[in-house]
Amino acid sequence: MTSTKPSSSPKVAAPDAGATATLHTGTSDPRTLILGNLRQSGIYIALVVIVALFAVLTDGVSLSPGNITNIVLQYSYILVLAIGMVIVIIGGHIDLSVGSVVALTGAVSAVLVIREGLPWWAGVLAALAVGVAVGAWHGLWVAYAGIPAFIVTLAGMLLFRGLTLRVLDNISLSPFPEEYQRVAAGFLNGLLGGQGFDAFTLFIGAFAVVGYAASVFRTRVARVRHEQPVESFPLFVLRVAVVGAVVMWFAWQLAHARGLPIVLIVLAVLVLVYGLLTRRTVFGRQVYAIGGNLPAATLSGVRVKRVNFWVFVNMGFLSAVAGVIYSSRSNGAQPAAGNMFELDAIAAAFIGGAAVTGGVGTVVGAMVGGLIMAVMSNGMQLMGVDQSVQSVVKGLVLLVAVAFDIWNKRRAAGAR
């Protein structure tokens, strides 16, 4: 059998194409489109409901400028991990080692910067290099040795936690220099002035809204040109207006607190880059193809081993980014850092719409899933809920999200 060129990718549906391939007109009934994309629509509704619920339960404290800023600072590293985790899950794998990698990369950075006195940026670069090396280690075993990712990363979880203890000599190291702390605790403010608020933060928010509106308008025009289904124009305008209002409200809250967090800029860049990577590149389409139908992807010429290898290298890199952010936020490195982070990242991906069997999921969905977990955790902390109860609630939410995924698949299969 003769295969196609390795650089080609199988013709699979775009990740956000939905289940409306049978429609042939440029417009469609809004109810049909919403039902056809129930997986994606549901998480946005769930986020709004959860935010509103905790706003009521905390008498509005959860939506205060200071608390909104704290949510961004406290959960940014989980959102970074969720970006990498959703790509791993789309490819049909899992990574249980990310919490240990977060601890190891933070420990390496702390040893170099705090103990050895190297510049702060040297610690960051060393942490990123260690993360990439860890990802390559996992990728070699999974892609080329053929060992299931569950086993490889479970071993990695133990291995790299042990290396963390060795690197730190079982003690914590702190504090980092001020420049290193600014990675996760710094703010950009005062650049454009403002009376009682930061005008620069509002400018960035407005710029993001304009960019979003232009992007979705171009997508709509392209779909109409190719006779793909889209919502009616009034509904499209309403959607853009709602998203714009939410973004500007969020920017307004940040502007009245401490300004624009530097870590939020890092996170936004990662979301944009990986959103484009998964939806617009050959590599992204190949990851979806491998997770959705491995035999078909292989016959279509996809270099499965190479793609799987780079999926885990990328996960190691993002784990290192999260490790730098976490160590900067905590102003030190601890042997127990990153404990259970892998479960939070996995939960964010599944709640955000990723399928257990692979081939389905989006970066934006993982972000929404991570925000749901963040809002719930923050809200329960504000209410003084016991940590054990918080774990119970998180576990139930994850179970419901996976059950919904299975039910949605059975419903779709029954409809066919």
Automatic annotation (TrEMBL):
It is a multi-pass membrane protein. The chain crosses the membrane at residues 41-62, 68-89, 96-114, 120-140, 147-168, 199-221, 233-252, 258-277, 307-326, 346-376. Residues 1-24 are annotated as: Disordered. One of its GO terms (molecular function) is transmembrane transporter activity. It is found in: Cell membrane. Residues 1-10 have a biased composition (Polar residues). Keywords: Cell inner membrane, Cell membrane, Membrane, Sugar transport, Transmembrane, Transmembrane helix, Transport. Its main location: membrane. It comes from the Bacteria. GO terms for cellular component: plasma membrane. Coiled coil: none annotated. InterPro entries: ABC_transp_permease (IPR001851). Part of the binding-protein-dependent transport system for D-xylose. Probably responsible for the translocation of the substrate across the membrane. This is Xylose transport system permease protein XylH.
